[in-house]
Amino acid sequence: STSSRSNLTVGYERKEQVRCMLCGGKECSKCGLDAYKKVASPAIELMHSHWITDNIVGMQRPNETSLHNGALADMTRKRFTAVFNLTEPGEHPFC
Q1: How does pLDDT run across 25-35, given as a tens digit for each residue?
Q2: How far is Cα 49 from Cα 46, in angstroms, rounded to an integer?
């Protein structure tokens, strides 16, 4: 039913908000501007990123600062053709 879906969505959003607040919000170890420093060899310069396969990279959501400072140029050099944002509504609202 519609009401049970709403309850599930609200519960999911609350869970994600609590987890995100505990990980640091704007200083999040996965989403923050310095998150890439925690990766020994990021797949994309200035982005928390890892090669999943030879053709797929898992990465933090792109941000204007990282893109402007070299991440976009690195993605262009590596011939990236698409970026898909898989963030769910309410997921990491404080990052």
Answers
A1: 667 777 888 98
A2: 9
